[in-house]
């Protein structure tokens, strides 16, 4: 249990033991998803499904924790599994090298306690929200762009993405603003804290409100949805 000693006294020993029984699905293994998987694994979440069809490219090296010069051209989901063997071999990583869509989404998500949105396109986010609602699975959404980020926690029926993305465009502003190393790490950290609270039913979560993060001016705002 020494691995988790620093989780105490934030968590009780019983709570920490419970974490190994949860199944979390992380959809997207890039900037956000890589950090989310890393932190969930270090917490001791017992089963993590990592979904991503992409391979690493040189442009990923500035911000994606799962990337390094030796894995260029390799599948991100598979590297998540290899990484966790080094970080916490007690955690099982289920790599899914597929594009998450309406055809396979229910199969991928079924049986999980919670899903994490670490996607980079809005169209697929809506598919994820729909399937989570159908399967009665909470969803922790995160998005980044340049200096900025946002996080909200969506319970079935909340339809928070309908409010956040009213125009339903395919891509967010990240292509225009770029993404540095620190924004995905920060937003992923907040997502993981939301995951922990939902799973353990502790504290207040960002339900029906969104946390907007501006690291340029270091302003953080919670806005009701």
From TrEMBL:
InterPro entries found in the cross-reference section: ThiF/MoeB/HesA, ThiF_NAD_FAD-bd, Ubiquitin-activating_enz
Protein name: Molybdopterin or thiamine biosynthesis adenylyltransferase
Domain called THIF-type NAD/FAD binding fold: residue spans: 4-224
Keyword Cell cycle: no
Keywords of this entry: Nucleotidyltransferase, Transferase
Keyword Acetylation carried by entry: no
Any GO molecular function: ubiquitin-like modifier activating enzyme activity
Matching SUPFAM superfamilies: Activating enzymes of the ubiquitin-like proteins
Pfam families: ThiF
Organism of origin: Caloramator fervidus
Entry's Gene Ontology BP terms: cyclic threonylcarbamoyladenosine biosynthetic process
